[in-house]
Amino acid sequence: MIAEGDSKVVVNQVRQGISEDSIGGPVLRECLQILSSLSVCIEFRAVPRSANSAAHRVARKALLLSLVELESFDFLGWLL
């Protein structure tokens, strides 16, 4: 499996298993814990922000949906 992100710093921290004491440190530590429990090999790649537009759209929509019932949202219809 390949996971892509547009932050080289975060991708490198995940690759190296580092969770620094920064604003995103707790989230990164949780991600590393989850990753260590998986039995799947995941390759992390840094990509330009322009290549990550679909993930950006999903993340922005998730923020907007935090106040809405997710079960009633047509995610695939929105994505396509």
UniProtKB/TrEMBL annotation:
InterPro entries: RNaseH_domain, RNaseH_sf
Transmembrane segments: none
Residue ranges annotated for the RNase H type-1 domain, each copy included: 2-62
Domain of life, source organism: Eukaryota
UniProt-recorded Gene Ontology molecular function terms: nucleic acid binding; RNA-DNA hybrid ribonuclease activity
Entry protein name: RNase H type-1 domain-containing protein
Source taxonomy: Eukaryota, Viridiplantae, Streptophyta, Embryophyta, Tracheophyta
